[in-house]
Fold:
Amino acid sequence: MDLRLKRHSGVPVYLQISSALREQILSGMLREGQSLPPEREMAHRLGVNRSTVVKAYQELKAQGFLHARVGRGTEVKIWESREKEASVREEPLDWRSLFNASSGIPESFFSEMLSRANREGTISFASGFPDPDYFPREIMEDIQKNLHRENARKLYLPSPVEGYAPLRESIAALLGHRGMHVPSRNVMILSGSQQGLDYVARSFLSPGDVVLTEEPTFFGALEIFRAAGARVVGIPMDEEGIRRDLLEGAIRRHNPRFLYLLPTFQNPSGITMSLERRREVLEIAGTSGIPLVEDDPYGELRYEGNRLPSLKALDLRDSVIYLSSFSKVLSLGLRVGWVVAPSLVIERFSRLKQITDLHVNTAVQMLLDAFLRQGHYEEYLSRICRGYREKRDLLEKSLRRHAREIPWSWKTPEGGFYVWCRLPEELSLRSFLSRGALQGVAFFPGGAFYPDEAGREKYIRLNFAHTALDRIEEGVARLARAAGESLKGHAPFLEEHPGGQEPLV
Amino acid sequence: MDLRLKRHSGVPVYLQISSALREQILSGMLREGQSLPPEREMAHRLGVNRSTVVKAYQELKAQGFLHARVGRGTEVKIWESREKEASVREEPLDWRSLFNASSGIPESFFSEMLSRANREGTISFASGFPDPDYFPREIMEDIQKNLHRENARKLYLPSPVEGYAPLRESIAALLGHRGMHVPSRNVMILSGSQQGLDYVARSFLSPGDVVLTEEPTFFGALEIFRAAGARVVGIPMDEEGIRRDLLEGAIRRHNPRFLYLLPTFQNPSGITMSLERRREVLEIAGTSGIPLVEDDPYGELRYEGNRLPSLKALDLRDSVIYLSSFSKVLSLGLRVGWVVAPSLVIERFSRLKQITDLHVNTAVQMLLDAFLRQGHYEEYLSRICRGYREKRDLLEKSLRRHAREIPWSWKTPEGGFYVWCRLPEELSLRSFLSRGALQGVAFFPGGAFYPDEAGREKYIRLNFAHTALDRIEEGVARLARAAGESLKGHAPFLEEHPGGQEPLV
Structure:
């Protein structure tokens, strides 16, 4: 124990001792339960009178830092005493009253519902995750090894705010093969495309502004636009995508800041916007001077039909901010996405990146760059598309098998992850969710996907991609049982959710 | 080439051909420069008249998608033609006019200045980075290998919004050893502590609110608070930290939303708040019901003197949000930090994480957890502290050597990365920066650290940690030359900065 006393400092020696000990206790140098030397021994060590040490210990006992136990001497008792002190002497801060009024930050009803999806034995169609067993682990491990061998230093260095330059180039090259010819300086790496939505909101929205979207649309976009204080106005779709006859009027009426669209294998509806509709939407937005935010996390995952050009590829006015991600093709756990945008927007986003989280983890950027450059991507992509197609077909087959008991209906998506399943009007979704939890099956309730949540509880989103192939039929059977029970009017059943939230996408 | 024609669709066949080809060009199936079959051959393949194909090709040429070249037939020419089309026919969107009025997003004068610090041969004291050669690469590589062998599947899965549970526990244990006893549920993993500052701003600030800080203080905090529309009021420090005599009055006058403090090895001043001042500040804030945001990225890096308890460890009212990070101890490139906060705050932050970027990359969380659990941390920490101490001492020695030519002055920091160096009043910082760039030395100008930037251009921040030991003396010699030239009144020298911004910290 290292206590330095200043004989002539004017501070009484017992106070010097007590405050030095308190400091050591609070800083962790003296641990909970540790014994202090008996008073006599301590006095001897410090070269002071025993009564001085007694006084110092007494003060610390009074303050609740020490505790004398018969036969065990004097022990540090900080943890218990701090709790006691806190409850006796101090009024804890009322945090609830301190939060700002950003009512846009949503409560987590859905995350509570969905956390049950992780229960042992539950078959979940609820998440937005890809199949974890499709991830090319061996390839990635080899790449990691090579990177460690050849480039270990760089792996752990900071990288530029806009992203690791070679990865920006690899992504630009990939997009070029899809007909989207952009220089790599207009590609910026993000912590997933959700971060792009946040930056869009922070760059273009002020409270009270309007955003136009398809209806239904990705709830993660709804949440971030609302958190920025914006009002989201949804425009219904037909089989070719957002309805152009309603779009023009909505633009006139609402003067939106931008149009948010998921044109390919839309989340949740699965609808793909036709080429003609793409041109029309670009024309309408162009005439009105409205920017487009194109969200395209699923575009690579086509199981049939011809690939369509993105809005960004068709855009002649530099009016599209294009977002995509490795989350659906590889894994959400990587947290890497990107934005393609005009230079002014990239500049703004890189300022935001600097002040919100600096840059994306360097090692994962190098990993993905090597994966693309070594030419693994296209083969991997066709392999997983074959797998997902098989799952989609099996889900549909299973749904059809139960369609007589449960009159649900859906349209076949040409790609992506989701079957958007319409349920009978009389089915209560809350009851269905609870019954599903009891049966051991989870899904995403449709209401979350509507800008206006009221009165549309007749859809659910089923992700066929994440579920193992051999669990799909059983999962649908459980869905059918849960729906059947709910239709018979069983009461909803709710329970506590365990700690730790699954990310929702 | 796969063109399916519908004979009885009502759409003229030449239009079907041209639109199918356009679609293939735009989607990238037909590549730039690729030749189309001659008209006769195409007509034969499709079973249509040659004149129908001629008409289709003509239309695409008129639209700028195809180009006929003598001797080479008809080629796809999308890229050039799109650029032409864009310049001729379409008005590009005026993005500048579309941004919202969040004047708080700062322009990047400093990043432009600092990007020069990366030039070949420049000795930089400018960044906020640790020494990249201290990073325990071999240990991390071993851990990676083990993780791949034993836990490969999990590495690439999503993790909970609040962070990978074992890492939350490891960090809680580490904090416990520092006298901060918190349950792991009050520890949340973030993409660096900068993200914590963003979440603090998003949770507690509304436009017009006031934040109190030390003066000078970390510019990254200033920027994010300003971006939220807040006004930052700085309170000067003495050698024991923020001045308590000014703090009470400032709280009364400004009614701040919170107090932002960097009590240990402050960035940029290097000052460490005394234990007594810590208690006083907690008392004052407690009496006024003001929360404290404690930023502690450097606290582990002590080179002499006794460790002091954090504000969070001393707090009896649950009134402190504590932020820290692996950025300074290991590497910024990891992008992993954490917050310790009351449960209500963790809840709010996890909602923000869900809507802004979902969670932190799983693999890096598992890596850091293993590093802590396997007990490498403390040994590594003492090793790097010895190294940084040596660097600090050498920087000071070098500065003293030139103190007669350049009357600069500073106080020795007991830890952290920075010497906060006061310059003669008559030295123009802009000129010094430019002269430094020419001499091949970089530093961070002091003005950026003041809530009110005007008229305080007399300090610079020197990071001794990042620079290799054998470059420090030469770096200071260059500094002295640049300062000497500037004092003689050479004109400032500015140039274009290269692409790609270094993250500023």
Confidence is low (pLDDT under 50) at residues 84-89, 492-499 of chain A. Residues 162 and 188 of chain A are 5 Å apart (CA to CA). DSSP finds 17 helices and 16 strands in chain A.
